[in-house]
Design a protein that fits this description.
The protein is 37% helix and 17% strand. It has 13 helices and 16 strands. Bound molecules: 2-keto-3-deoxygluconate and magnesium ion (MG).
Length: 404
């Protein structure tokens, strides 16, 4: 029996940071929600949804998730890109939520069932200097984390990616016009291996340590970095070099066995396919929200499975609890799951998005309520209006624009 879509609306709220949520309602009274947040470009996705997708959604059969996906992807003529794919992702996630609620099953059951008991996550330890980062690592270990990302300030640089005032809730979008960071590759390469040297000396090798380079190195510099940290057995180095030039990864691979994770700014399987098929990465970091939703992410994971590439989805604070909830159902049901990033949301955010997922001893569990298990309290959401906020930009010491 068809389930008719009767209404769809976009809810923008800022409980400590901006989130864009799509809510789709049906004639059966069942609704579903999807995350459409694109950090620093939120309103572009709102317009894409309100002006272009929602008018075409009304009256359609909510059961036909794949057909609706293809209608918006192929049918638009203009394909791909973060705005388009975040909007399609929100529709897809909301429709999966509806289908699972209608079946009275947790979403993972419709995706093939559980492949594991829980989802290993990594948290973020960051500090102005090495000793501060190590103190943060201790806190994560006390909380039970098995995997931790380590970032530290660099002597001689006022600010750097990954180091924030707020420890548990890292928030890079910090100003209503972009703030400016200064970068020096030489200073970074000299300092960062010391962080992992001290961390292994203090904590041993029982925990997974990760690191995000955030697209800042050239291929040969990235190769050098990967080699310099091999003794510290990193779980991965992330975004070692900008991935528009995918051939560059071959050079890095030739020089180091430090595993590589890429994909948080990818939007489709086409962005990822060469890296996967040539085995130039070990982990693919595409997300439910920025890569076309659960339907498309599962296709990426299926391709990656053929090449022993595992998933490691992005999960920064700017991906809403709706994305996190959906991601956990994906994570628990794909066979080649690797790890899930988990930056905690603030209490204010969690209050706006009540959810069934829970954290225990370094793992997240999606819960067993029907759907993806995340809701939105619209009354509360309305109390936190949108606040313009940009991600920073990055320049070299001589003023040259660089990758942030
Ligand atoms: O919005 C951008 C952030 O999500 C991103 O900079 C965080 O690189 C990131 C990460 O690995 O979580
Ligand atoms: Mg990253």
């Amino acid at each position: 029996m068809p389930v008719k879509i009767t209404q769809a609306k976009v809810i923008v709220t800022c409980p400590d940071r901006n989130f864009v949520t799509l809510k789709i309602e049906t004639d059966e009274g069942i609704y579903g929600i999807g995350d459409a947040t694109l950090n620093g470009r939120e309103l572009a996705v709102v317009s894409y949804l309100e002006d272009h997708l929602i008018p075409c959604l009304i009256g359609r059969d909510a059961n036909q998730i794949e057909d609706i996906w293809q209608y918006f992807y192929r049918g638009a003529y203009w394909r791909r890109g973060p705005v388009t794919m975040s909007a399609i992702a929100a529709v897809d996630t909301a429709l999966w939520d509806i289908k699972a609620k209608k079946a009275k099953l947790p979403l993972y059951e419709l995706l093939g069932g559980k492949c594991r008991e829980g989802v290993m996550v990594y948290g973020h330890a960051n500090g102005q200097d090495i000793s501060e980062t190590l103190e943060e690592v201790s806190k994560y270990i006390e909380l039970g984390y098995k995997a931790i990302r380590l970032q530290t300030g660099i002597p001689g640089l006022k600010s750097t990616y990954g180091v924030s005032k707020d420890k548990m809730f890292y928030e890079p979008a910090d100003a209503n016009l972009p703030s400016e960071n200064i970068w020096s590759t030489a200073k970074y390469l000299k300092h960062t291996p010391k962080l992992f040297d001290k961390a292994r000396e203090k904590f041993g090798f029982d925990h997974h340590f990760l690191h995000d380079i955030h697209h800042r190195l050239t291929p040969i510099e990235a190769a050098k970095f990967g080699k310099s940290v091999e003794d510290y057995n990193l779980f991965w180095m992330e975004d070692p070099t900008p991935a528009e030039n995918q051939e560059a990864l071959r050079l890095i691979r030739e020089h180091t066995t430090t595993p590589i994770a890429i994909g948080e700014i990818f939007n489709t399987i086409y962005d990822a396919k060469d890296l996967i098929q040539n085995q130039l990465i070990d982990y693919i970091r595409t997300t439910v929200v920025h890569a076309g939703g659960i339907s498309h992410l599962r296709k990426i994971a299926a391709l990656a499975e053929l090449y022993q590439v595992r998933t490691g989805s992005h999960g920064a604070t700017d991906l809403s609890p709706v994305c996190m909830g959906a991601a956990l159902h994906f994570d628990i049901s794909v066979s080649n799951f690797g790890i899930q990033e988990y930056m905690r949301h603030t209490d204010k955010t969690d209050d706006v998005f009540p959810h069934s997922y829970t954290f225990k001893e370094g793992m997240l569990y999606p819960g067993d309520v029907p759907g993806h298990g995340v809701d939105i309290d619209e009354e509360l959401a309305a109390k936190y209006p949108y606040q313009p906020a940009y991600l920073p930009v990055n320049r070299l010491e001589d003023g040259t624009m660089w990758s942030w």
